[in-house]
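Researcher: Structure prediction, please.
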Amino acid sequence: MTGTAENVAVVDAFLDAFNHGDLTALRACLADDLVALITGPDGGPVELIGADAYVGAVEAMNLPAVDYSVTLTQRPVPVPPDRVLVMVEVRAHRAGTALHNFAGHLLRVAGGRIAQMWMVDAKPAESDAFWA
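Model: Predicted structure follows.
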């Protein structure tokens, strides 16, 4: 596999783990010193330092209590030398509430793990209200 194909494979594994709520597999895709900028409720970035901080934020979403899917809207786009751009569609239902959203992720892969993540949420306030 070429470097860009390997990077796409890491991102695919990360998205698959997220989509299945497998936090152990998700954590295995992340570098220990991950720096993640995710969209906050006001649309601005929230910085999470370290893979455990990111996994903790995902754990707080209580994925087992939600019927959800995260699907690619197009094939991942390698951005040489070490980044992958993905667009996803999120559909989620819980206790009579629903979320339909889109997000873009630019992920830098180093040493076979995601080292940096930039996430842009199309509807940050709606996502925050749903996952709270």
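Model: Residues 10 and 29 are 7 Å apart (CA to CA).
Researcher: Thanks, that helps.
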